[in-house]
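dumping this here so i dont lose it
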């Protein structure tokens, strides 16, 4: 078989660094940074990649904030983070020795806390009290399941919550319904990566 060599010339000459990450969910405006859901009580692991970075013959170095020593080299890495806020930096260097960096700040939140915050949203709303009680009871079940690391059950219970919101809340309170469903879906989606 013939061998084809493709040389990609960098546009503009300087390398660029771009951090890619999966499994992050959006809880804005409550959390300004993307959220990584922890399915246990203390940490969560994140797969990071530098595939979208540009340049020739790049070397990759990954840093956690304020740590002078990189935790990994290479275009793809997995790192685990404790609950809280973390800033990750990727530095790429090309064949000519030119460097570029990209940083990403993430927030690690436990699944039970994410559900607790949704319970607060429901409790603070002006929807009818009976509906509120029913929705909160459903979320408390989900929260208990999440606390026991029963991920599939948690997702199913959140699904039930979303259906109830669509049926009982959306007609009279469309804005609340939109926010709650988005939050519930983000929690569920954020837990997906924890399923072994």
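and the seq i came up w/
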């Amino acid at each position: 078989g013939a061998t084809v060599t493709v040389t990609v010339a960098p546009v503009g000459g300087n390398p660029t660094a771009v951090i890619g990450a999966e499994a992050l969910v959006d809880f804005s405006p409550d959390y300004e940074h993307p959220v990584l859901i922890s399915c246990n009580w203390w940490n969560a692991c994140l797969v990071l990649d530098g595939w979208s970075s540009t340049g020739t013959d790049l070397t990759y170095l990954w840093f956690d904030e304020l740590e002078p020593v990189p935790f990994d080299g290479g275009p793809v890495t997995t790192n685990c983070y404790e609950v809280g806020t973390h800033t990750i930096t990727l530095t790429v260097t090309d064949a000519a020795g030119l460097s570029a960096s990209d940083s990403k700040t993430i927030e690690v939140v436990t699944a039970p806390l994410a559900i607790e915050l949704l319970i607060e949203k429901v409790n603070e709303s002006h929807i009818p009290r009976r509906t509120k009680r029913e929705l909160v009871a459903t979320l408390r079940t989900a929260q208990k399941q999440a606390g026991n690391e029963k991920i599939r059950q948690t997702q199913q219970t959140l699904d039930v919550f979303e259906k109830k919101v669509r049926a009982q809340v959306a007609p009279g309170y469309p804005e609340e319904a939109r926010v709650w469903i988005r939050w519930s879906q983000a929690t569920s989606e954020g837990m997906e990566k924890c399923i072994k």
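The mean pLDDT is 93.
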